Amino acid sequence: MIVAFSVTPLGVGEDVGEYVADAVRVVRESGLPHRTDAMFTSLEGEWEECMDVVRRAVAAVEARAPRVSLVLKADIRPGVTDGLTSKVATVDRYLGQD
C-alpha cells in the first residue's frame, strides 16, 4: 500500500518546518520506501507498518504542539510493490519521457 499523509501542527504560529521535520524524521528512520515533497510524505509498505509510522509521526509533532491536523490518503492494492516508483514511471512513459 501507499499512504500519502501530511501532519500539521496547529497553535504554534506560521513557521512549522521544525515541527514537520520531527514527523519526517520518523518516516526516514522507519526504513520504509518514502518520498517527501512540499505538501505530503508518501510511504510504502504493509498496512500495519504504514499506520504505525503515521501514528508515530503524529505523536512526534503532538509532543510539541497543542493540536495536530492529519490528512491521509491511501492506495490499498495487495501484491503491488515499488508503487512509489512504478506509478510515476507509468505517467512518464505516457508523457514520452521514458
Series of secondary-structure elements, N-terminal to C-terminal? EHEEHEH
Spans where pLDDT lies below 50 across 5 or more residues: none
Q: Determine the N-to-C terminus distance.
A: 24 Å
How does the major sheet shape up? 4 strands, antiparallel
* Overall form: globular
> If strands are numbered along the chain, what order do they take across the biggest sheet?
2-3-1-4
Number of strands: 4
Question: Helix- and strand-based class?
Answer: alpha+beta
List keywords for this structure.
43% helix; alpha+beta; 98 residues; 4-stranded antiparallel β-sheet; globular
In short:
By secondary structure, the chain is α+β, with helices and mostly antiparallel strands. The chain has helices at 17-30, 47-62, 83-94, and strands at 2-10, 34-36, 41-44, 67-75. Strand 2 and strand 3 form a beta hairpin.
Describe this structure in words.
The structure is a single chain. By secondary structure, the chain is an alpha+beta fold. It is 43% helix and 26% strand. The chain has helices spanning 17-30, 47-62, 83-94; strands at 2-10, 34-36, 41-44, 67-75. A four-stranded antiparallel beta sheet has the order 2-3-1-4. The model has no long low-confidence stretch (mean pLDDT 94).
